[in-house]
Design brief:
The chain is mainly alpha-helical.
Amino acid sequence: MPDTAMWTNASHETGLLLPEVSESGHGTRRVVLFGPPGSGKTTAAGVLGRQSGLPVLRLAPGPQDARVACAGLLELALALPALPAARELTAALAETAGRSGSPDDAGRALRLRRLTAALLREAPPMTLVVDNAQWLDHASAAVLGWALRLTPDLLVIAAERAWRPGAAGHWCGEDTYAVPVPPLTAPQLVALLSPYGLAPREVTRVHAHSGGNPALALALADAPWPLVDREDESEPALPPTARRLVGEWLGEVPAQVRELLTFAALDDRPDLELLGRLAGPAAEALLAQAEAAGLLDIGRADGSVRFTASAIGTELATRLPGDARRLLHARLAEASPDSVRRDRHTVLAADGADPRSAHRAARAAVRARQRGDHALAAELSLLAAQRTSHDHGELLTERALTAVRDAAHYGDLPRARAAARLVLGHDTTPDQRVDALIALIDASGQHLYSADELFAGALRAAAGRPDLTAQLLIRQSVWANVNEGDPHRACALAGRATALAETAGDMATTAMALTMQARFQRVLGHLDAGTTLSRALSLPRAASIPVNGTPQHLAARHALFDDQPDEARTTLLPLLVEAERTGDAEATVDILRSLAEAELRAGRCTRALDHAHRAQALTDGTALSAAPACYTSALVEGAARRTDLALAHARRGVDTARREDNKVFLSRNLFALGHLLLATGHPKEALEALEEVRALERFQQVRDPSILRWHPELAETLIALGRLDQAQSLLDDTRRTATDLGRDTVLPPLERSQALLDAARGHYDTAARRLNDAADRLRHLPLERGRTLLALSHTERRGRRRASARAAAQSAADLFTAHQAHPWAETAAHTLRRLEAVPTGGDAHPRLTSAEQRCAELAAAGASNRDIATTLTVSVKTVEATLTRVYRKLGLHSRFQLAHTVTPARE
């Protein structure tokens, strides 16, 4: 393998990511991999060594060897016993050990250097891997460093336990390239922990606590470790193996640093200002030591600090006895510049039986909620409930219900469970019990285990109350659709909820139930879905309905299905403001996702990326399921930025949905995966994903083809693989269903697929007509129009009409570039390069580009600059600049001359 290809970012059999070496490191023969204990340095060094294609000689000094002079040289000599130089070096080391004096004495040191250099020269071609190089004794490092200067072609990989490389030169040589071993990404951690069968939320929690450190992640996954939903307020201690590992890390820094880190662990959002107030002038130096030890990240733009693995903070906090913890909270209360956080620390510093602390926590929770700090509000409202005396039953129940709702809004399932237990464990009314259970169900999302038992208990509590029963049936209908894949049952449950809510005169619940019923009717292809939604929209808007459960949100989704992205956007923007104001994380993610899809359909790729990134970030920062956000991220990234990132999102979404048994978003993420694989030229892999989508959609009885547009993607995949009859059958069936349901917006993409099928059968003229017609019908959807023009280019090329093929490809390239759809623009540019025009001998005019030619033809036909801009979907300024180049190339001065020089475009 060439040197420049040796150090690359690649996956190996463990699923871990190998260190990435930048261009400046390519070709180097000496690499030091560094990282904290358990970060995977040994594995990475071994794999990189094997990638060299040479035999690997591995040295692995231990802690005890660091104090034994020349132990590393002896290990090297004994590893190559057949070589005369190795035997001679072994003998010399034995003599050195048998004499008084130091191996650093000049004569002995020179002899050891000469013999080591001779051994490395005699050795057959190999890669030398030195694992745990931090324990290589000083004498061996000095001799090896000298000998390596004389053997510059020897490949050396050292794996060293260090958070960052030292400032001094390394014994490997001056040209040594230091490479950090990166922490595991979320998908890599999923692969690493797959044998443990953890729930997705547990994997997310392990990733946050481990910071992506493989050894710490395995230690956390390998032992029972309860969630933070106990009656007390402390976080459970780490499992013993994890405690030992984190203890090693903390042992690398002095006690003063650990004390400052403990303050950071006890604050919910520590920053440099707070820690500076606590430690005074020494803070900067102490924080620098913590950062150098890899324990703390202090370089954040907002001045906040965070542990590189949150398990570090957990270990520091749980080490403290209760009295010591309260004293530190008291100091934090004095130092905190933020009034709400001062109250938090004051509460935690107080005795749990003090009723004033409960009142203070409740007031602070209100202020946190008002300023949008919903994570802190969830913690404070639970503290208020937990510290309320049981003698005040009504107040306790009220505060516990508030805590359940706060936790549900933020997706904080552990706190929602703890608060719900406070409600259910006391003498409460059916309304209160059902309210708590509904909030718990809402907080659980896809993490709702023992659903049948929970719903049965809640329905028992609601017996005789049609309004409460209706609210529960709405949640049960969602569960039936998403997890059971049964929209018929879901629709029936929503219908029962509607009838009960109307009987009770509960208009808010009626609106929610009608909205759910309309959602499932659309899925099933019922023609009265629109009527049902109109009924829901006609009812008064109630603040108690979650924003993503409102009929307005469903109306926006239906507008998206009907290819009306601007109408959807107009409806969604005020809903986003409302969702963010209420602090409902799941609703905010859903609205952001819908906005991202609307902007993408309209060709506003930059805005789509912004919405998708916000949805993904909010999802990853809470306990929400990753599957919905991954689906949207995959679609948007694949169209607007990078297909490799898009594929990673889609695969993560697929894995998450499978583990959660979420059939709806398993279909969607598989669709995104299949679409991306087809777009990147992998039709066989795309077929596997898209066929599973077809099977899932049939299982879920989804009849409406406008909801998930997998049909044309699967048809194109079948065509690419030569399965023309199967593609024709799929297109015929889908076209018939779309026509029956009045889903005309589905037809242009189906026509694109039909045209590709026509072209595959040699009917190029028919295919071109279909594609031109489809492109005209897709003018309001720029990316779909661009895809259709690309298909037209491929069809024209196959029909040997290269000029038309170039014109179509150029129009597609211009469209994708104007809308910043970078992956598609690259595809169109590649198509154009394959169609580079070859000048004909009889053409006396300078050659125009395809864009210039098309613009000139339209101008020659009498079109105005504005008309040309509209036709080509570019700006008027672009048309003006293009025509200026045309006039200059052709030596013309007017449109009259142009009309007599260029053949006008035919309309």
